[in-house]
Amino acid sequence: MIQWLVDPWTWGDWMWRGMVTVHLVAIAAAVLGVFLYLRRMSLIADALAHVALPGIVAAFLISGSLDGPVMLGGAVVVGLVAAWAIQTLSNRPTIKGDAAIGIVFTSFFAVGVILLSTVVRDAHIDTHCLLFGDVLGISDRALGLVLFVVPTVLVLVAIFFRWLAVSSFDPKFAMAIGVPVGAMNYGLMTAVTVTAVAGFEAVGAILVIALIIVPGATAHLLADRLGSMIGWAVAHTVVSCWVGMYVAIYANTSAAGAIVVVGGVLYLAAFLLSPRHGRLWMARRSLLRSRTSVSH
Amino acid sequence: MTSPAAIEVRGVQMAYDETVALRDVTVEIPTGCLVGVVGPNGAGKSTLIKGLVGAREPDRGELRFFGKPATKKRPFLTYVPQRGAVDWDFPITAEGVVRQGRFRSVGLLTRFSAEERGKVEAAMEAVDITALRSRQIGNLSGGQQQRVFLARALCQGGEIYVLDEPFAGVDASTESAIMDVLRGLRDEGKTVVVVHHDLSTVREYFDRLILLNQVVVAAGPTEEVFTAENLQETYRGQVAVVVE
Amino acid sequence: MVRSNLYLERAQEFFAFQYDFVALALGASVIVGVVCGLVGTFLVLRGYSLVGDAIGHATLPGVAAAFLITGTQHPGALLTGALLSGLLGAVTVGVFSRGPRVRSDAAIGIVLSVFFGLGILLVAMIQASPTGTQAGLTNFLFGNAAAITAGQLQVLAGLSLALCVAIGIWFRPLAIVTFDPGFGRSLGLNVSALEMGLLAALSMAVVVSIQAVGVILVAAMVIIPPSAARFLSRRIQGVALWSMAIGGVSGAMGAFLSYLFEGVATGPAMVVVATGFFLLALFLGPFNGVLATALRKRRAR
User: Fold this and answer.
1) How far is B56 from chain A (nearest CA, A)?
2) Domain contains B191
3) How many structural domains does chain B have?
4) In this structure, is residue C293 part of a structural domain?
5) pLDDT bucket at C1, cuts 50 / 70 / 90
6) C296 assigned to some structural domain
7) CA dist., res. C39 & res. A17, Å (int)
8) Distance between CA atoms of C138 and C234, rounded to whole angstroms?
9) Per-residue model confidence as pLDDT tens digits over C144-192
10) Which domain holds residue C213?
11) CB neighbours of A260 closer than 8 A, spacing ≥ 6?
């Protein structure tokens, strides 16, 4: 058993590189995800993660480089343009907010995919890797990017914790006490984009969404305070990463896919079994109630 | 009265797309009184509140506070939202909500000092919720929830308090407790504006009254304004009004 | 010069239908556009746009599982797998949206990403197995209309026709439920059954479409044409017709562009064309279009 757990670490340094990268990305995504989840912005996160792809491609087309800062800059600029477009479209009377999200990110993403397969086909962008990730083949560049981005994001969240908390809970009140609500909003969206880009090489554009949404959703079923909700979200994502990595290694499959599936299973477990809000207990309670009312 | 009015609303018009919510509203609220804002659904009460707290700029007209034109920042104004506007599933305890009232003065990273903690405690005691402090807000009754938000407002302090339907879905003992607190604020010289629904308690609760239905139908001391004719005009036959 | 000649040549090839697969690809793409445009009309009006995205992504594990179980690429098996997992995804969104401590938007995101993760996991297992390298499952990600055979096209056309007829029959109740479920209930309509039917129709439309557009972008064909059509008509019948027309034309032009430019998958090409139509409608549409609104405001002043 121990042997089985230790072995992968002796097979080459890809194991610890993969583990470090995926853990850092997952933790940053989980922490940001808690705020996005509570603000009902889960699907904005979905859109931003998709839109980062054309952002990177656009940055490459303009600068011809794939350095970390260029990629981040491109993704952030295109991400903010997308956020603005979603906002503007949903202000029109005939377009609902969810349709605006769907229109903007699918069209941006389609353009990104087309550019990837034509104009920048000769560049060293691994399409498959950008979309689906390769946890076991992390490059120095990706590792460096993650080591820079994730601590920065976490420190910023710690500094602005009170403002983020109050503007997520009651934006009108936050505005009244002088919290820069708009800046918090755009800051959060920028942080999500940056984290998604840093995570692309590890888990890919699409599955990074799961790392943002699922831990927060799980934690909400378990926690009564914001601090403990963040704790649960981080715990959820760390367990998913460990279990998912080993599943992927021994079943010889995609590590990103395995991590996400484990996370989904944990969410289902919390949904059914959470002590206070587990649907299994709720069903049993209502069954008992209906029985007693019948017997009376 | 020598001191300027706490709130002056001059010719304010506010509209959504093509429907006008408030038309040429002009009204004055003197400092140190307890004012009720009464009118039917869709009369523009919530819109007026939005204008007062700065959530929306008036399309036309002017707002003045204590004789000065309104700016974007209104630190003297404290707002208690409608209960329906709150996300009760949010992971926060009763005490956590009340502590938010001190966020402006404690800033981002400083710890709550003994003095700040004392203010939080005092506010919770004033509305009698100290025993509920570590409950998640969704696990409180409607009355308890309303008390929590009132405590946050007390803790925040301010010169003008704006409450949006504080008695909706609230038990009788909470209603009288809230009224005691509001009267206490008035007696300290604060100005309290309450959006209210229940006509039967208007006379008992408020010093002054604003009857609103897109325009100001009447405004002034309660006993002058609260007449059958004014109410008929405000509600335009939507309710049978009985004033003894 | 050489390059433009190449494109001209390809365009001539395309319109001469010199190769069978060109006609098949064109047919499949038009069908996709029309069916998604019709089903999408109700979805977008009901506020379920992104449920379409979730179902699109949720079909991938079904496709992969069907391949793992049957060991073949038989289209019937793959489409059945896709339909079942798409329906499961739709039901799961519903389950995860009810009760305390859940958010319906997060439910969509959870289903979308976790089902897709499961799909990627299964696809990776297939690709690692000795028989799996030729499975061609990547065609399902971004769509490859050129890979559709005559037999498959017949199946797709048959299913689509059945779907359109069914929606035609239930058009009125669906329209009422979409617009005002409360009113529908008061008329004695079975609202939840109609909503389930709508989600089933969506799953069906997605399944019919994934070979041509792929699971990742199929949502775009459900959301974008109806959203454009809302600027062109005020009545739901008009929106549905415009939406089908825009979807169909986008499908045809997407297939053409994908043939013209090597390496461009059909799905993204269709989506970009549909977005073009959306922008046209947004600016020039008579109902709440940017230009129309500006003119009306000016006249009001």
Assistant:
1) 11
2) yes
3) 1
4) no
5) very low
6) no
7) 46
8) 40
9) 888 888 888 998 899 999 999 999 999 999 999 888 888 888 888 888 8
10) 2-288
11) A203, A207, A210, A211, A214, A240, A244, C113, C114, C116, C117, C118, C120, C121
Q: What is the pLDDT of residues B97-117, one digit of tens each?
A: 999 999 988 989 888 999 999
Question: pLDDT at position C57, please?
Answer: 93
Tokens 């609220």 label which residue?
B29
- pLDDT for residue B207 is more than 50: yes
The contacts of residue A135 (CB under 8 Å, 6+ apart) are A18, A21, A22, A202, A203, A245, A248, A255, A256, A259
Given a contact cutoff of 8 angstroms between Cβ atoms, the answer to whether C221 and C49 are in contact is no
Predicted-assembly ipTM surpassing the 0.85 threshold:
yes
Q: Is C269 on the interface with A (CB under 8 A)?
A: yes
* C232-238: average pLDDT: 93
We report the CATH number of the domain holding residue B39 as 3.40.50.300
Chain C contact for B89 (CB, 8 A cutoff) = yes
Residue with tokens 């491609």: A57
Instruction: Tell me: pLDDT of C131 over 80.
Output: no
B38: which strand partners? B196, B211
Cβ-based burial of C113 (10 A; exposed 0-12, middle 13-18, buried ≥19): buried
How many structural domains does chain C have?
A: 1
Low-confidence ranges of chain A (pLDDT < 50): none
pLDDT at B17 over 80: no
Under the banding of pLDDT at 50, 70 and 90, the label for residue B21 is confident
The overall average pLDDT reported for chain B is 89
Q: How far is C239 from chain A (nearest CA, A)?
A: 12
Judge whether B78 lies within some domain. no
C300 occurs within a structural domain: no
pLDDT given for residue B244 in this prediction: 43
Contact between B91 and A179 using a beta-carbon 8 Å cutoff: no
Does C138 reside within a domain? yes
Distance (Å, whole) CA A165 – CA A161: 6
Closest alpha carbon within chain A to B98:
A166
Domain annotation for chain A: domains and CATH numbers: 2-295 (1.10.3470.10)
Domain assignment of residue B37, given as a range: 31-47+84-235
Nearest to A189 by CA among A171, A166, A164: A164
Are B146 and B81 a contacting pair, CB within 8 Å?
no
Q: Whole-angstrom Cα distance, residue A28 to residue A50?
A: 18
Q: What is the layout of strands, in order, in the sheet containing B215-221?
A: B77-80, B160-164, B191-196, B34-38, B208-213, B215-221
Three-class secondary structure of residue B75 per DSSP = coil
CATH of the domain at C131: 1.10.3470.10
pLDDT in tens, B170-204: 899 999 999 999 999 999 999 999 999 888 999 99
In this complex, the chains that touch B, judged by 3 or more CB pairs closer than 8 A, are A, C
pLDDT for A65 equals 81
Q: Please tell me which of the candidates C220, C262, C287 has its beta carbon nearest to residue A110.
A: C220
**Chain A neighbors of B79, CB-CB under 8 A:** 172-173, 176
> For residue C288, which residues of chain B lie inside 8 Å, CB to CB?
none
